[in-house]
Design goal:
The protein is mainly alpha-helical. The chain contains one helix and no strands. One of its GO terms (biological process) is response to toxic substance. InterPro entries: Entericidin.
């Protein structure tokens, strides 16, 4: 029973960490896209 609880807690921790990692990567990619868009708009005038 103790092993089952430990596995559930470990699995939950891994899933939550992975979710935060993916969200952070998405934000970084979005910021990069905004920087490219801003640069293109500055140079197109």
């Amino acid at each position: 029973m103790t092993r089952l609880i430990a596995l559930i807690l470990l699995g939950s921790t891994v899933l939550l960490t992975a979710c935060n990692t993916v969200a952070g990567a998405g934000q970084d990619i979005s910021k990069g896209g905004h920087a490219i868009t801003d640069s293109a708009e500055k140079h197109s005038d």
